[in-house]
Amino acid sequence: EPLMRKGVVHFIKELQQLKKIGLKKISMTTNAHYLVQYADELKLAGLDDINVSLDSLDEQQFQQLTQKQLKPVLAGIQAAVSVGIPVKINTVLMKGINDNQVLALVNWAILNKFELRFIEFMPLDGDARWSKQHVVTEAEILVQLRQPFDVVVAQNSHSDPARRYFINGHPIGVISTISNSFCGTCDRLRLTAKGDFFNCLFATDGQNLKNKIKALNNA
pLDDT confidence of 124, banded at 50, 70, 90? Predict the structure, then answer.
């Protein structure tokens, strides 16, 4: 969670220097639990948008999934909106756990004008809890959506991992890494909070840039 790291606002502010040489956008993915505290400062630092991880709107279910309260997260999302930071919502669906939240989240996103992206459950966990049996596929999500909504396929960017749709005119996306692999067109890189650099989300080994930078500074 980036908002738990000391100096995160200063870091966002310093990144603005990279826009002079071609950086287009600075985004942050957060659980929004501490966003009320930081929304104003992040806006002033130049953060362009925020992706909020929100896997349920049911308070009890949310606490079971995250060990946190839902209300501070919703308050954080509203705080970001109030200062003018665009918000996208990311939801990881797991079969038999929170797949009953599809319609609730879509209705909430439409009401609040948030772009919502459903993400198929991916094997990114270090404790090997992932199982394909828990994956809610893009096809299964669309079956739920087509019952109450008109679903229209949108024009998709070649490199965008999300396959985009319009639900009664409102944009949503589905990142279907498991059922529709996008490895051939992926242009994403990942830098972890510990300073490890990966050229693939599924890579098990990366380059530790933190140690290399320290070595250069000490040379």
Answer: low
Report d(CA 49, CA 120) in Å as an integer: 22
pTM of the predicted protein model: 0.83
Q: Which residues contact 168 (CB under 8 A, 6 or more apart)?
A: 110, 149, 150
- Amino acid identity of residue 206, one-letter, is G
Q: Which of 134-138, 170-174, 178-182, 187-191 has the lowest mean pLDDT?
A: 178-182
Distance (Å) of CA 103 to CA 72, 106, 118, 166: 22, 5, 11, 14
Cα 95 from Cα 144, distance rounded (Å): 13
Question: Residue 98 in contact with residue 70, Cβ under 8 Å?
Answer: no
Residue 175: pLDDT over 60: yes
* Alpha carbons 104 and 34: distance in angstroms, whole number: 24
Q: Which residues of 38-75 are buried (b: 16+ CB within 10 A; e: fewer)?
A: bbeebbebebeebbbbbbbbeeebbeebbeeebebbbe
83-107 pLDDT, tens digit each: 999 999 999 999 999 999 999 999 9
Of the candidates 85, 23, 92, the one whose C-alpha atom is nearest the C-alpha of residue 62 is: 92
